[in-house]
Write a structure and sequence with these properties.
This protein has one helix and ten strands. It is mainly β and about 210 residues long. The longest helix has 12 residues. Strands 1, 2, 3, 4, 5, 6, 7, 8, 9 and 10 form a ten-stranded antiparallel sheet that branches.
Amino acid sequence: AIIIAGCGKSDKVVPTGEKKETASIQEGSKIFKLDMTSSTVAWHGKKVTGEHNGTIAFKSGEFGVDNEKITAGKFEIDMNSIVNLDLADEATNKKLVDHLKSDDFFMVSTFPTSKFEITKVEPMNDATKPDFNHTVTGNLTIRDVTKSISFPANLKIEGDVLKANADFDIDRTDFGLKYGSGKFFKDIGDKMIYDNFNLKINITAKP
């Protein structure tokens, strides 16, 4: 998502670059629409004094398939749907979620939607990443900042069901989320929030 605060150093952090030309769904492609009931995004962020996790909901999504291969697609995330799952106290939970939605983080009142648009999908055979079979490249937009990212994903199409899952980290500061970052604010001690946050994306789509 889309999401939050970050996880220290990680070998799962995906680098960001300048946005690229997106792939369009071509006439004649089989179109798969996101199944909203079975598709999920989970987030996990860390700070010096602890960590938080939760979910955020898709808003829409579609993918173009040619010869049983994903050739184009996009999805949108509803930034108003941020949920925290680790804080049992209702008031504390609300305080965290409201802070994530505030201008310190995702500026949800101004930018209610984040999105990802595919630019390229390539087969991958990497013994160090046995759970993934493709590299997906696309433009990720958070808070109206768009960056190109590439991440490993497991993609499969079985009959009328498209399945996709990915697990990677993003540096929030690449998208202008600098609150509590040790890169931009010195001597903040245990107030520091790590720059990297984790996303676990699980998609089911059907024609």
